[in-house]
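Model it.
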Amino acid sequence: MKNNQIRLATMEEGSQIIDLLKETATWIQEQGINQWGYLLDGGEDTEILRCIGENCTYVVNIDNELIATFTLYHEQNDWDKYIWGEILADSMYLHKLAVKPSYMKYGLGKEIIQWIVENIQGEKKYLKLDCVGDNKKLNQFYINNGFEFLGISKEHSKYQKLLD
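Modeled.
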């Protein structure tokens, strides 16, 4: 996908981001995948808005349409500590990478990961994430995009990618 723009989200985009995450969560559920159901009842809305306000959430726009979002934590949140245990502060954590279903299968997820690696500089050595362990397509996506599989914790696959 060309002509897309990745940038920090603004608070004014909060409801659009929440809607996109819920649309993606609904699509995931329709595929028979037990992932992100908690987003559908609004239980994460406050956390999503907090991350936008703290400049952790990014959006992808194409022709002024919000088509994807992701959040980068520069420190572990409670979920990361639950999955990974408390570890050294050498990593960023990728959360809520979502592409609008009508824009899936165009390589946008791969472009987002490449953008993160090329544009988010700092003292961090690794980009880490987790996903539901039995989501075969998503697990393969991360492997295909250069992430190293580090095992399973609490039914979630753990991945890391070395940042150059």
